[in-house]
Structures are given as C-alpha cells and as structure tokens.
Amino acid sequence: MINIYFVFFLSTFAMILLLFPVDIKPFLKSKFKRTATTKSKEKWEEIKPKDKNRIEKLNKKIEDTLIQGGFKIKISEFYLISFITGIIGWFIGKMLNNFLVSLLLFGVFAYLPYKYFSIIANSYKNLINKYLENAISIIIAAFQSREDLILAIEDNINNFQEPLKSYFIEFVNKVDKFGMSFDESIDELAVKIGHPIFDDFVKLAKIHYQKGGDTKYALLDIPEDFRDHKLIMSEIDAEISSIKILGYIFSGLVVGAIFFQRMTNYNYYSLLVNTTAGKITVFIALVIFLFTIRQIKKIDNQIKV
C-alpha cells in the first residue's frame, strides 16, 4: 500500500520540478536596468510612495483590479462574495470526506471571484494597450507647444479610442469642472489604465506641473519607452510560453489522475478518499497542483503589463 501512495505522490511531485529552473528575473533586470544618477534619484524620491503592510497592499491590489474592470464594488462586498464562494468550496471538499481538502478548496474557491474580476480587468487593459501608445504620443506632441496637459488632452480628445476617450474626459472634468487636484486626478487615471510606462508619464507630468520649465522635454522619451517595453515583453513571452504550456498540462494531470482513478480503478480511488493515508496523499497532490498554478502565475505576471 505504501508503494502505491509513494508512486502517486512521486509522480505528482515530479510535475512541479519542471518549473523550478524557470527564473527570468535576471533577464528582466538586464533588459530594464538603467543607470540612475544622483539627480534622477532625488527627482523620483519626492513622489515615491511609502511602504505599506501586506494587508494594505492586498486591499490596494483588489481595489485597483475592481477599478480597472469597471466594477462598482466595495472592498467589504468583495470579501463577502469571496467568503460565500469559499463556503461552496468547503462543501465540495466535504463530499470527498476530507477535512484537509475542504480547507484547501475553501481557499481556492474564495480566490475565484478575484480571478474573475482580474480576467475582466485584463481584457480592458489589453484593449487600452492597443491605443495607449498612439494616444500618449499625440498628447506629448501637443503638450510641447501648449505647455498645459489639460489643454493638450482637450485639443485631441476626439482622436482617442474608447475606453481611453472616456477616461481622459473624466480626468479633464475632474480637474476643470470639479476642482479636484491635478495630482489626485492623474493618479486615479493611472490606476484605471494600469500600464508601467504610463505610470512613468504620470510621474514626469506631475514633476512638470510642480516645477515647470524644461522638465516637459523629459516626456519626449515616453513613446520610445512604450516601443521598447512592447518589444521586451514579446521577447520574454516567446522564451517562456512553452514552459507555461507544459506547466498547465502537467498540473492538470495532477487533478485528472484522481478522477481517472475513480473511473478506471474504483478500489484505489476508495483508498485515496476513505483512508487516512489516502486523504493525506490527495491533499499533498492538490497542494502541488495549486503550487504549480501559482508558479505559472508568477511567471506569467512577469510578462504582463
């Protein structure tokens, strides 16, 4: 019996090992690394946000995702939805008569609402990214002569595609009609757009708004940064896409093996579901499955905007 459980565990554990050699952080650092002078460090230091604890970071990440997806949901409502879906996962685990799996599925199902909102938000971001480089290039060109970001946007608002057009109209109205501060309004715009190069554009625009003068010329590098960013992301995606595909296939086999045993070898399935050793084995297999998915997600996040 021990040999059967050991083989089952070993086969699932081997799947995660395929992902361990994948570490593209050094590759990313070499691609994006820039020499920073003391003057440039001081320039960015004045608008560098303070460190936040993990709970604040988590809440901020959830709120940003909800905003980017266009959802009018409060953070408290989100947690309530997650708890309800987690209860569903708990009961599914109870059907397997496995307390450890119930706990595991509670966490998995509680995560599903965020995953859904994240998918919607990413679809918006992909649409925005199609038009963002062109829109920012137009704004920067107009800004060099107008020397006023609000006027540069107003002059070209009809040249923007949705949803960028609506976002920029809302930004202009908040500053012009509702008297919201420039920094607060453009920070909200940056959250909705959610692109790292646009974040750089926002930082430089805020510096110019505070200091004026020749700081506007720093914006001229932004269009080239967009092109470099797109090229680098495509190169990275090409390098690791095969690893991601293999990871999804093998992680799927972990869960599939359990259901396959139920259909083809019910006696073995009963051992996995009804005995203590079997329950522990299933729990470990599912942990490996979730860890594999997490590793793939971490890799995937490195190539997403």
From TrEMBL:
Membrane-spanning parts: 6-24, 75-93, 99-117, 245-263, 269-293
Domain of life: Bacteria
UniProt keywords, alphabetically: Membrane, Transmembrane, Transmembrane helix
PANTHER family to which the protein is assigned, alphabetical: INTEGRAL MEMBRANE PROTEIN-RELATED, PILUS ASSEMBLY PROTEIN
Protein's UniProt name: Flp pilus assembly protein TadB
